[in-house]
Design goal:
- By secondary structure, the chain is an all-alpha fold.
- The protein has four helices and no strands.
């Protein structure tokens, strides 16, 4: 990574944006966490639909074109909501990075072993 503080900066910026629109992710009750996780999940589903619409997926429609610029914007929108979800769960940029590293190790082990059966316990340590 060119600048290791970039990921932390994304988290700082998202916290500021959330607070500006009236969402305080720190100190939420379980009910508030549930509400906001669902809100962000639904928002991400919509962003995924918008990303899908950036790609010519309708095999019957000849008018479609790949809109790479819009696809990039939709990916960034997904990051906004993903970071917000992490913050609702009390995760910092460092927490997400550490969990990603551990989960990546699990995924690599799964691939090395052929991933022929599901083991719910292989991610319990994350």
């Amino acid at each position: 990574m060119e600048n290791p503080d970039q990921f932390r900066e994304l988290f700082r910026m998202q916290k500021a944006l959330n607070e500006r629109i009236g969402v305080q992710t720190e100190g939420m009750s379980e009910a508030e966490k549930t509400k906001w996780l669902l809100n962000y999940t639904r928002a991400m589903q919509q962003e995924m639909a918008e990303l899908t619409d950036s790609v010519p997926w309708k095999w019957w429609a000849k008018y479609q074109k790949f809109d790479e610029q819009n696809a990039r914007v939709e990916v960034v929108d997904l990051f906004h909501f993903l970071i917000s979800m992490a913050q609702v769960l009390g995760m910092s940029a460092d927490d997400v990075f550490a969990a990603y590293v551990k989960k990546n190790e699990v995924n690599l082990k799964r691939q090395e072993s052929g991933y022929t059966k599901k083991d719910e316990n292989d991610s319990k340590h994350i």
